[in-house]
Amino acid sequence: MFDKILIANRGEIACRVIRTARRMGIRTVAVHSEADARAMHVQMADEAVCIGPAPVGESYLRGDVILEVAKRTGAQAVHPGYGFLSENAAFAAACAEAGVVFIGPPIEAIRVMGSKAESKRVMSQADVPLVPGYHGEAQDFATLSAEAERIGYPVLVKASAGGGGKGMRVVRSAGELADAVAGAQREAKAAFGDDSLLLEKYLGRPRHVEIQVFADTHGNAVYLFERDCSVQRRHQKVIEEAPAPNLPDEIRRRMGEAAVAAAKAVNYVGAGTVEFLYEDGGFYFIEMNTRLQVEHPVTEMITGLDLVEWQLRVAAGGELPLRQDQLTRRGHAFEARLYAEDPQREFLPAIGRLVHLKPPAETAHVRVDTGVRQGDEVTMFYDPMIAKLIVWDEDRDAALRRLRVALSQYEVVGVTTNVGFLGAIAGHPAFRAVELDTGFIERHRADLLPPPAAVPDRGLAVAALAVLLRRRAETKAAPRAAGDPNSPWLFANGWRLNEETHYDLRLMDGETAREVTLHFRPDGYEVAVDGGAPLAATGIALADGVLTGSIGGAKVRATVVQQGLDLTILSEGAVWRLKLDDPSARAAEQEGGSGRLTAPMPGTVVRVLVEPGQAVEAGAPLMLLEAMKMEHTIKAPAAGTVSAVNFAAGDQVSEGVDLLVLDIAEG
Ligand code: ADP
Ligand code: MG
Fold first, then answer.
1. S-S: 651 plus which of 144, 341, 533, 647, CB 3.0-4.6 Å?
2. Domain range holding 159?
3. Among its keywords, does the record have ATP-binding (predicted)?
């Protein structure tokens, strides 16, 4: 076995490989871009080396630099993860030349399977059933259109070098073919540097069922059952599961054997996935991925095996740990891919800081594979996946329940995510009923992507109570001269001083202003939203950003995260966003100042320039903050009186915290 390996990847897969290596007593070398200097995989590895600037072409795709690092650090093998260099035959060849083991299949297998067309030619020789289609070398339009006629419309135009759903076009009739071919060629050329195409019969309602295979250098090859990845959006997997529900055992066995035959046909070694479409009892090879697949954890959950351990053993020349007849499976597993993206805006990647990140607790039933921590940034340079949430239980219904609960517990604030969308799929009756095929998401679009709803009254009540309790705590923590008794920043003091009985708060729900009135009662509060019937709020407490108690007779438990004026409320799987309509900020906006006395980024307080009670002019410097090796001056957005200084020199502050409180002078 190796003593030291290099992981040529980042994010969750790099972390996942490091975990297994560590368990096996193998030392690890991480490589990283400048943007990833403090990334999770860098911190987890025993050693880390910077290989270049943020763009992948200048770092994670620099095979030459990575091999240099492998030699310099004494790494005996390179694990490529998925994506990046994992299916790059030239890189595998360069590894061999450098005397470093590539943890993956032989170069020739990567090359053949890297071309969908060539792999289909080889598969048809090996009697693996194919989707009817054309995978010849001739690419002139006359040939393609004659073949499309022969196959019969609708046909699917695919990039032979394709992956990740790119370069694919559905063509419904002959008239659409020319445009689709031109478009697919352009896309394929740009994405893969190769514009060769193939044609396939476009199946109407297939399921995507794939087989995990494994082979060693001693002639052994097995299949580790299947995964169903039918829940897709734009041909990309969203939720995967194992085993494939309602798949007859006989089909499972035949598919498994066909996949092993496919692997043997290319002298495969290591982990691979043979993808099939399954429709009306028939199954058809579409492609083989010559690497560890994103969704491999569901296979690990039902087999109890560690596929990365198997990869390492095979790459070190060992035999497969188990034979086909020793492989068993138990229970059911799901994986959901949690992305920083906005389902309401065509799933556009969302970038920003993970201001608050709290995954569900990991147990025997729940596994979280992630490469980011709270405070990390999702940038435009890399895949915006935040985590893979994996659950297991004895049967599909129980596992699905686990998935719904775990999704509802996943708390992410700072970037928009698809967690609600995933929850909608997991909770959909058709998904529960195994009405599965690759058109699932499109067919149920209206249910899965409802238009954004107004924040419910309960959410507004939670927000207002949290703001109230937080401000009360702040004013207690920072006693200062009483400023404007009506300032919302200080109202906790204000109402007591004035013996007022209620408090009004205005919150923006998107473009809509919402009014919350809080009445103080001996046993708690009464909360009325937009002048509606008041809800009784009792036993309300706020600790570590979590509000608990009872509102309108129902128990509540909500995490409330505040960044400046932005409030995010996470409760029972729902996420509500509101903005404080804050008069001091409005005043500041009118002054043209920033209006935010909050930390613009995480940093250290260098100096405090004012004290509570001090009157300041607009623009006066209040505090110096050091962040990202630069000093930032927090200035008064308008003339006023400093009413609280919440931090002292040397304190660490996180982004969005209130540094000081200023009473803006009237007028
Ligand atoms: P990629 O390399 O992008 O993963 P695949 O060939 O594996 O490309 O196809 C991706 C997805 O596209 C499949 O899982 C399936 O949903 C859909 N697809 C591919 N081929 C067909 C086909 N012939 N008919 C219908 N859907 C298909
Ligand atoms: Mg595929």
1. 647
2. 132-201
3. yes
